[in-house]
Amino acid sequence: MPALRTSARSARDTVRDRLRAWEVPGDTCCDAVLLVSELTTNAVLHTGSGRVLCGLTLTGDERRLRIELHDEGRVPVHPTAHRAGPGEENGRGLFLVQQLADRWGSARSTRAEGKVVWAELTAHP
């Protein structure tokens, strides 16, 4: 999808529909939608990408959900040491990812010219 601010909404809607079709439980679905929103927004605002690619994988045993956001950025993503204050509008995205995901990280993308930021959740306990 194009790297526009409106792409976060498109990604959320698409992911929500897919997870409902896979019958992923409500709490996990909500967490996954929020993770996709934060990862998409970060890619759009901070990487200079012209496009981003969002991927979802449900493992064969349907216990793990992997979310991937591929962009054209080349700098690996690390947890931020800065914590946003109560009056700041930005700066909470990676903190939310860190808190919601069971595991997360970044690597060089095999599907785009830059990197992939991924997060994993327990889909069906």
TrEMBL record:
Annotated GO MF terms: ATP binding; protein serine/threonine kinase activity
Statement: the UniProt record of this protein carries the keyword Nucleotide-binding: yes
Keyword Transferase attached: yes
Pfam families: HATPase_c_2
InterPro entries xref list: Anti-sigma-factor_SerPK, HATPase_C_sf, HATPase_dom
Record-linked SUPFAM superfamilies: ATPase domain of HSP90 chaperone/DNA topoisomerase II/histidine kinase
Every Histidine kinase/HSP90-like ATPase domain range: 2-119
Entry keywords, A to Z: ATP-binding, Kinase, Nucleotide-binding, Serine/threonine-protein kinase, Transferase
Full protein name: ATP-binding protein
Species, as recorded: Streptomyces xanthii
Biological classification of the source: Bacteria, Bacillati, Actinomycetota, Actinomycetes, Kitasatosporales
